Amino acid sequence: MRQLAAVLLMSIVVASPLVAGPDQPALAGYSSASNSDERQWESKLQAIPSPANQRAYMQHLSARPHHVGSPYDQDNAEWILARFKEWGLDAHIETFDVLFPTPKVRVVEMIEPVKYTAKLEEPAIAVDPTSGQKAEQLPTYNAYSIDGDVTGPLVFVNYGLPADYEQLDRLGVSVKGAIVIARYGNSWRGIKPKVAAEHGAIGCLIYSDPRDDGYFEEDVFPAGPMRNSNGVQRGSAMDFPSSNPGDPLTPGIGATPDAKRLPIKEAKSITKIPVLPISYGDAQPLLAALKGPMAPEAWRGALGIAYHVGAGPAKVHLHVESNWDLKKVNDVIAKIPGSSAADEWIIRGNHHDAWVNGAEDPVSGQIALLEEARSFGELLKQGWKPRRTIIYCAWDGEEPMLLGSTEWVEAHADELRQHAAVYLNTDGNGRGYLDMGGSHSLEQFINSVARSIQDPESRVTVWQRRQFKEIEDAKSAEERKEIRARADLRITALGSGTDYTGFLDHLGIATLDLGFSGEDKQGIYHSIYDDFFWYTHFSDSDFVYGRALSQTVGTAVMRLADAEVLPFDFVDQADTVQKYIKELQKLLTDKQDEIRERNLELEQGLFRATLDPRHPTVEPAKEDVPPFINFAPMQNAADRLMRSAERYRTASSQAQPKLSSLDPATLSSINRKLMDTERALTDNDGLPRRSWYKHLLYAPGVYTGYGVKTVPAVREGIEQKRYAEAEQEVSRVAKVLEAEAAVVDGVAAQLELLGR
Ligand SMILES: [Zn+2]
Q1: How far is the CA of 550 from the centre of ligand 1 (A)?
Q2: pLDDT band at residue 181 under the 50/70/90 scheme
Q3: Which of 28, 39, 237, 744 could hold 190 in an S-S bridge, CB 3.0 to 4.6 Å?
Q4: Which residues surround ligand 1, an ion (CB under 5 A)?
Q5: For 23-42, what is each residue's pLDDT tens digit?
Q6: Model's pTM, two decimal places?
């Protein structure tokens, strides 16, 4: 369900050869002997994926709506299974029984000062052949909204985030007993009803403002790619960041038929108030009927109205009810057994379920995955034997909230802790620049892969194109300098919103999330218009970026699967941790300065003196200045990690020529330790108040959802004014960094013996 960030188009016409040549250095983790073999297999692999095949797969998989529990969802799972088998892979379908609510009652009506009944309907469009498949389409709704029938005054809350409610307080507007209307964007959608409920609201509407993904950006569908006035973003509103993703009734365990299930009313991740998404066609009359203070300038969208906040006089009736049924999810799992290190697993996934036809989300990523699997099938016939076991996963139930992947991870947790080396995820694809996110121990590795793939438009490597784009977009000379000077492009830390969450955050498996984006805008996300017609008119219409994604992820999978020693590196990781510590120190200092300044303004009477009596505002409350926090334990631990990381880097490069002489037992013990490096960053007690999340460096933010919070317990402690907790968490993070350094030292010592 990942929504791709839209960035401006850039064109490059620089020719530079791909990294190639007889004297190129050995790949990390490879002996010189295996290096040249690997290079050959990789170039064979990269020649196989076909845009025409991907187009055909997309046409098939997106031909009908295929949400969880629908007939075509089942058909697609069986079709994918048949392809895996046809290509010679050992494949099966694994099912789980999950709670998946579907709409029963949906009513939004304004009863004062004028009557308006929302249409809540996306009409078929004549030129778009699949948009008319009404009988099979899920109506527009937010899954896991609690049932409710409420009436109250309406309040516009911008994106509905905590800072927006601080502004409402200044305007003297309360949402107690009100129904809020928030616009989509800037956070995971489930945050909006959650924050509204925390402030006393009784219902929540979420609409797509044309400023965010409509005509403010480009022409609307079908003339252009953007959301038209009837388009609605469906989506899950499950409060997974404060509890857990996956089936709400079986937190922490696989949703097998005999699993012990919570009663629905005890499920923590269901919303506290009813919520429903609407189009801007339906939102406009409601917003136009609001009075009260003008919305702050940054809140105003692109509708031709004066944006007021309310409350009222618009009064709204909202009624939502769901069928709370258990449905089957069908995960399709395919295995390529490893030769000499079969008990080390490289896992690759993308979901296959969609909200409706889902050509972009998820099929554009799924078709790349399928071409990788077909390519590996071909290479197996030609004699390629991966060292490690490779597992390909087409997940079901991602859209409701990572149901298929989370249940699989929970059901196989022990084996995965034992065997999983790396998980690689995609979730959709488009034209543009390679997005690289993941564990920072894989930063150097994925940079090396990006240097091996040619960009289909510019003919430079996808790494080079990404670097140029970052230089072009850099906000300061200092930033540009770093991008040019640093050997590796920085990868982004992972939050959530797609299937890697269970692997990374729950089990501590090193993870990568990849995809191309940045050249095409889209406003069809989770609507009936995300279909084959849209994709082949407004996105990667010739599927050359689909091929590039197969080449990129396929190469990454192969390179990870074949290396004698897993190509992890910890210098970038240690460097990133040091950067996080600086950010946290600045976050605290900024907060202290801000509160000190505001307290001074209050003492001086600034707010009263500057008040406009015709547009009155409420004085903010005086607050205690945040105390200083001792970051030293984390700084010392990060310092130690850097020393261990440098030691490992030296040891591994000195050992590299001798890797081929290593006996299987030594190799296995080295790789075992390397697999443990990501586990070392987890703590079984988990994060405060959300113990399902065990990783102490990365987590989705409690108030962002998709957006990552790095060093989450410390960062959110400061952001949410729990300073004592933040300080305690500093020592817990220091402990896992020390543990990480110890594991890295252990492998370094083993390699040093060999290097001598
Ligand atoms: Zn998706």
Answers
A1: 17
A2: very high
A3: 237
A4: 1, 361-362, 427
A5: 567 899 999 889 999 999 99
A6: 0.96
